[in-house]
Amino acid sequence: MKKKIFKNTILIILLLVVLCGVSIIGVLYSYFNKQYVSSLNQAAGYIAEGVNLSGLDFLTDLNENEKRITWVAADGTVLYDNKADPHTMENHKNRTEIKQAMTSSAGTSVRYSKTLSEETIYHAIRIADGSVVRVSVVRKSVPALLMKVLLPIILVLLLGVEFSAILAYRLSKQITTPLEAIDLDHPDESTVYDELSPFIRKIRIQNEQIQKAMTQLQTQKNEFALITENMQEGFLVVDKKEIVLSHNRSISTLFDVDESVDGKHVLEINRSEEFIDCIKKAIQGIHSEYICPVKGRFYNIYANPVFRNNEVAGAVVIITDVTEKEERENLRREFSANVSHELKTPLTSISGIAEIIKNGIVDEKDVKTFAGKIYDEARRLIHLVEDIIKLSQLDEGEQAVEKTPIDIYDLSRIEIHHLEPVAEERHIKINLQGEHMMISGIHSVLEEMVYNLIENAIKYNKEDGTIDVMIKKKKHRCEFCVKDSGIGIPADQLDRIFERFYRVDKSHSKEIGGTGLGLSIVKHGAKLHNAEIKIESALNVGTEINLIFPI
């Protein structure tokens, strides 16, 4: 700003100096030109009068060195010239000033000599005998005069430049200093000259408008941040070049990124082909979604295009955790497959035996044996359906939730009594240890849980094995433990034994029997009673399962 004011001021002043100088020279030149003409007119008149009275003698006696005097006859012959020999001079009849004088008594002309850079002014007067007296004077031309005064002009210009520089600097400083001193945040407190008052007022009004808009934007931003930061879902905004504009805390946690990812390509968040393809489709204006596995969990990614003026400006990506949904879906499919298999096996056996009996292929003495097999398979079906119904009730919360005080020691003793005949067949000894302890629970569910744990300990035990059932109090909690000396469970399968229909040794599942739902019922029962399950096992050593109930 200062440079522009400084430069323009100097240029204006220099232009004014030059214009003034040219104007002054022009005015003076015009003035002196008139003076020359007037002087020549007077001198010519005086000389013409003298020649008219005394003739050549007047001219001879006249002592004039500054002006050139020429007497020309009526036919153009030069009779006298005080600067040259008349006999060597050519006829002047056709000279402009001579022709004018002969026709109208007086004439004037100016002739320029390029060689000498001079101008000659001629003034001629016709006298009574028809001859013409001409007086002339030589003067410098305008260019010649300018050349003579060039040095003074240069000096004046230099002085003008210096003066202009000082003036321009002071002027620019006077203009810009108040501008630079304006406090844009508090313009009314600034001291400025009157011309800046409207400018200050506009700044104040704009500041108020900007502050109001900023307050509204900040409020909206805070509200938006409050919403997005507290969302369990991941929230991500990208532009049409796939650059991350914003993301919330859930995105940071999910993909292990920080705030520095803003402003970078979305590849910095996740490099999977499906994830990038999902965002690319959204930027093309197409809604897209897919399920992405991340760190052992499943996330549904929804990518929607964002339009501005009917053009895609970017995309908004919402990421929701659907792990439980996927796990339930997988469990449902697996459960359906297992149920179908478990139902099909006894039904096939029943159907086959019934078909043999129907066709009369079975001897009378074998009918009872085949009927027994049909009965066993039917009982197996009944147990399976009952277990499925129990699990369904536990899943849907249909099991009666009325809890009563129950002595877990007495309950264990009763269930052991029911299972002793099965244990004796394999020479397995069941020991009950501990003390009577009361817990709040649902009798039918606890009964099923205890029964299933002891039954499993019998099924997966060795011949002549042992089972220890222990009840003890531990830090305001009741610990129910079933420990066997059986075949044990591999460490990599411990987490799966509570899955429905899961069997560690599938090849011997038919020999062992059961529906494969016992431990699933135990797991759901423990959840219903806020109980904790702990399991320890070693192959060919045995398994210990603990249920820890709050008292």
From TrEMBL:
Pfam families the UniProt entry points to: HATPase_c, HisKA
InterPro entries in the record: BphY/WalK/GraS-like, HATPase_C_sf, HATPase_dom, His_kinase_dom, HisK_dim/P_dom, HisK_dim/P_sf, PAS-like_dom_sf, Sig_transdc_His_kin-like_C
Nucleotide-binding is among the record's keywords: no
GO molecular function, one term: kinase activity
Record flagged with keyword Phosphoprotein: yes
Protein's UniProt name: histidine kinase
Subcellular location(s) per record: Membrane
Domain Histidine kinase, residue spans: 338-551
UniProt keywords, alphabetically: Kinase, Membrane, Phosphoprotein, Transferase, Transmembrane, Transmembrane helix, Two-component regulatory system
Origin superkingdom: Bacteria
Primary enzyme class: transferase
Main location: membrane
Transmembrane annotation, as ranges: 12-32, 149-169
EC number of this enzyme: 2.7.13.3
Reactions catalysed according to its record: ATP + protein L-histidine = ADP + protein N-phospho-L-histidine
